[in-house]
Design goal:
heterodimer, A: 440 residues, mainly alpha, B: 523 residues, alpha+beta, six-stranded mixed beta sheet, five-stranded mixed beta sheet
Amino acid sequence: MGQIFALASGCDATQLNLTATEGYLLSRFDGSTPWRVLREMAGIPAADADSCLDRWIDEGLLEAIRNSSDSNSSSSASSSSAQTDSDGEESAPVDAAEAPSETPPAPQIDESKFDEGLDLDLSVQRRILEFEASLDQPYHRLLDVEKGSSDPKVIKRAYFKLSKEFHPDRYFRRNIGPYALPLERIFKKVLEAHEMLSDPDLCQVENQSSTPSAVETVVALPATEASPEPSAEKPKPLTKLERLRQRMPFKIDQAAIEARRAKAQEIFRAAEASQKAGRLQEAEANIRIAISFDPACSEFKEALGGLRIQAAGARATKLLATPSERMSEGELRDAWKLLEDVLLYRPHDPELNERAARVCLQLGKLDVAEEYAQTYMEGSPEVAGSHTLLGRIHRERGDRDAAVRAFERALKLDEEDLDARRALASVRLGARNEAQGGTA
Amino acid sequence: MSRVIGIDLGTTNSCVAVMENGQPTVIPNSGGYKTTPSMFGITQDGKRLVGHLAKRQAITNARNTVAAAKRLIGRRFDDPEVQKSIDLSPYEIVRGPNGDPRIKAGGKTFTCPEISGIILREMKRVAEEYLSETVQEAVITVPAYFNDSQRQCTKDAGKIAGLEVLRIINEPTAAALAYGMNRPGEEKIAVYDLGGGTFDISILDMSDGVVEVLATSGNTFLGGEDFDRRIVQHLVEWFEESEGMDLRSDTMALQRLKDAAEKAKCDLSMRDVVEINLPFIASDSEGPRHLKFELTRENLESLVHDVVEGTLKSVEQCCVDAGVQASDIDQVVLVGGQSRMPLVQRRVTEYFGKRPHRGVNPDEVVGLGAAVQAAALLDSKNDMLLLDVTPLSLGIGTYGGHFARLIERNTTVPVSKGHVFTTTRDDQSAVKICVLQGESDLAAENDLLGEFVLSGIRPAPKGEPEVEVSFDIDANGIVSVSARDLATDKEQSITVSSTGTLSDVEIDEIIEEHDLYEVQLRD
């Protein structure tokens, strides 16, 4: 049962008078697969297979190699194949091309993967592994249709045939163990092959090149409108790209986009008119519509930002008129929120950053305050006040050296800056007091 | 192994089927009917009724009788379709805590999956009585245009009914499976499904047991009930003109009118004229008023002509999507009770240039198909294979509010698709991946299925980093999305599995509660 046979050396299988099934069976004797497995795959009744075996042994075609000690352990299969190799036996004497039923050479399958415990015939297991190993073939080979064939009926028939064999639903709830993944991979590839072959444009491309993979090529495509920043271009075959581009996953109707843009501009002009007339709400609503028509236009967003500032202006002026030192905590929080809103549209505006820094300083949010103050200072480095403000934040944080440096810079820019002078004095005083306290 | 049933959970009627000796068979309920009204009611004394029993008392108890909950399932309360339902339904629809619509009946508030669950439980019971064994698994059908959330809620409904849902399949596809079973040869067919509440059109390619969906289109809010409503509206207007009385605020009169309209509509499929006779429809100081009206077929056809034309627009769209001409279609299969209407049959015949197939019962074919799919999955002897498709496009939101489609609708599953995206700002360290489903080019107009952030991108000028986003849909329709930074191989992914509005805990609570009522449901 578990015996392993190999074709006798020097025997030429092509000279024999065999039926297709017999030829297929004979081609399977590779010197490593146990007879028990081969018999399963023969596709003929077990008794017939046995009689073939007997006949071939009698005729001297086959030689027994060794008895597999444990016929149930799949690992023994691999160890036995290793042993035959080391014995120097011819492990695959029958060239696959000679097998009548095999057109493309069958890839070598690691039989140790076979698992009798699964709800899957060994012949099916072999077929799955073999097919998976040959997925890199050109699409027409994969579907087994003639190269250049574009008859949709032929392609569809081939596709349906393979679907019936490999669609995961055919194995629903069956114990197929590790075969689930290969099956899904195979079906997806079959799907891809059908998709490419049934598109005449792509079919031509495929016939020119060898083995494209849809995923890879799509990946290499420069992005379109949808993601306006293209990723770094990779070296690519151009004609194929161009054809693929026409059927990109997100095809975009340029005419429709142009129409939307024109519409957006029109609405935007109306918005500008309302803004000039002081009807801010109406203007904002219109700009929003314009943005929804052309979301990529930054001009609209800037305008909306400007409008927002202008609209928030009324509230803001009132709020900002009160020095932040005199605000209640609730007011401070409101002010901060308002400022953040506005800053979204004018992130580098020095005045806004200054206010934000003061408000946050007041709220004790020193990290944020420093960020704003830094931006303020970078925006207007020649203004003494920016350095003073930064210095005060440093002082609050307890970073005395940084504070002193900032105040000194402020005084260098403007000797009259009383704020800075006073602050510097108090920091120095504090430092001195501390030093004295330390020595005492 | 216990048997698996197929359930057509309809807007107005439901149907259950099972495979017997290799052939799908509809299971009649205890009253001998092959379909059961998808209705649920609570009587004054708190008794819960389902199916024919609920329908029988709908007139006297309109406020506590829920019909057509399928129109609400899986939608948001703010959905215009839900708002339309609120105006039309005799029962009360309120906003749930998750922004979902909920239904008030008998002093209790029900979620939509709960109502559908009650109907499914009744169908399960019908099957169990017939088979004399417990049933635990089912294939359930939904309209092709149901989105992810609506499908998920239907699955939840199955759970509430104590059923494990093996698959959710599209109604027209199910019809095609039932039609295509045991049919040799290659055919292109169109399934025109005009049911109680929805309209679906699908074009399929079939050959020796393999059924491939080429395209599908439709309208989730158009169906036989719209026909009824047109008749009711007409009757109300006529009554107001002739009698000077407005029946619009009289729920009981409206329910009677609705029943009479439905009956008249069905009768007009066989006859040229019917008399609608509703004595004592209303009364005022001058005494009781009676409604007596003669409705002709021509009359009806002029009332609903535009609705039928609307369905043909979807058919045209579907043909374009499938890349076929109307004349390429070998067979047209009509599904859904409303497709019996002579006007519908005439227009469909004119459109396709051939008479529709007459071999299937439009009320039962979907349920039969669900049973066929159950067998195709589980019975190794069954040779059918359905190559199903995703109903809506999937993609991600990109800079500028655009929607980048990675998987087009009507793509056969299982499938994987990937694309490389990049950053839009200098030194951007993270990208947010919003997984969207829908057909609009604008991200905001599509449904958000989930989102995640891929962080740790190395600082680089904008446009330089490469992030590969891949979508994967497995054979069960479960979507997973991953994003990988090609420079660092860092990866982040999600599985979009549950977007239903109920949590597992909530479902368990509901199941427990319904077990208490099981006794009442049985009488």
